[in-house]
Amino acid sequence: MLLWGAAWALLCAWTPKPFNSWRLLCLRLFGAKVEGRPFVHQRARIHIPWHVTIEDYACVGDRANLYSLGFITLKRGCIVAQEAYLCTGYHDLEEDAKPLLTAPIVVGEEAFIGARAFILKGITVGERAIVGACSVVTRDVADFTRVAGNPARRIE
After folding, report:
1. Which residue of 94, 100, 119, 128 is surrounded by the most CB atoms within 10 Å?
2. Structural domains in the chain?
3. Choice among 41, 47, 51, 91 that is catalytic
C-alpha cells in the first residue's frame, strides 16, 4: 500500500486531465480491473486499487474517495462526483476488539453519485439511480430511483 501511495503521488496526482490513459495504466499495474476507457481524475483517491473494478465510461471525479477495504465496482457509464466518499468498511463498535467489517459497494450502469455523498459498505446503487449531493446512503438504491438527504430517502 505504501508503494501504491507513492506511485500515485509521483506518477499520477500531478498529471493533467488528458493524461487519463496514463493514470488508468498505473491503476492496472496495481491490480485494478479497468475495462474500456473510464475517466479517473488526477486528484481522486483510490486506497486499494486491487479491490476496484472500473468499467467503460465510468467517471471518478475530483477528490472522490474510493476507500476500498472491500471491493468497489463502478459499472459502465456511472459517475462518482467530486468529493463523494465510497466506504467499504467500518469497525464493529459492539465488540471489544472493534474488528474491521467490510462489504462490497456496487454503483450501477449510468448511475450518478452526487458531490460529497457518502455511500456505506454493502450498498448497491442501481442502474440510472441518482444520489443527491451530500446524501448519506445507508440502504440499497433501486434502479431508476432518486434519493437525497441524511439518511438518503427516495424523492420524486
Report:
1. 119
2. 2-155 (2.160.10.10)
3. 91
